[in-house]
Automatic annotation (TrEMBL):
The lineage of its organism: Bacteria, Pseudomonadati, Pseudomonadota, Betaproteobacteria, Burkholderiales. This is Ribosome-recycling factor. SUPFAM superfamilies: Ribosome recycling factor, RRF (SSF55194). InterPro entries: Ribosome_recyc_fac, Ribosome_recyc_fac_dom, RRF_sf. One of its GO terms (cellular component) is cytosol. The gene is frr. Responsible for the release of ribosomes from messenger RNA at the termination of protein biosynthesis. May increase the efficiency of translation by recycling ribosomes from one round of translation to another. GO terms for biological process: cytoplasmic translational termination. NCBIfam families: frr. One of its GO terms (molecular function) is ribosomal large subunit binding.
Amino acid sequence: MSITDIKSSTEQKMQQSLESFKQSLTKIRTGRANPGLLDTVQVDYYGAMVPISQVANVSLLDARTISVSPWEKGMGAKIEKAIRDSDLGLNPATQGDLIRVPMPAMTEERRKELTKIVRGEGEHAKVAIRNLRRDANDGVKKLVKEKLASEDDERRAHDEVQKSTDRFIADVDKLVAGKEQDIMAV
């Protein structure tokens, strides 16, 4: 494995960590409705657990209401139960074939609690990125020890890995700040 392989591999893994962090942020609900909020909810579809998006059309009715339109008549009750049983704290209401999922207004206390959760998730993402930096630097040191790279190459590689790390950590900070702003908006 060469230094360029180590750098590109580290860059890919850091990108994956960032994507994973973005995914975990979508699960944290803000005051506004977002169809992506229901992506993690699984429904029993003839014995198999599948995401709601595979058995129904999920869209927005307005800023505070998600609508779920099942594709099959008998799925309405199962979808409603799955949403109610999820850990999202939502209370769906069925109107004919349409399931309305209103977003409850959040209290100030709940908003502050959610910002702490977002910051914690952000810290986990940063730790993962820093661990990748450490692994990359260890890999480069091993190459130098085995005389496959010079110390100048090592220094350059450390600097480039640090720049990547700084860039990804700045991205995480931006995402955290944006999510906090969403949560605190009334």
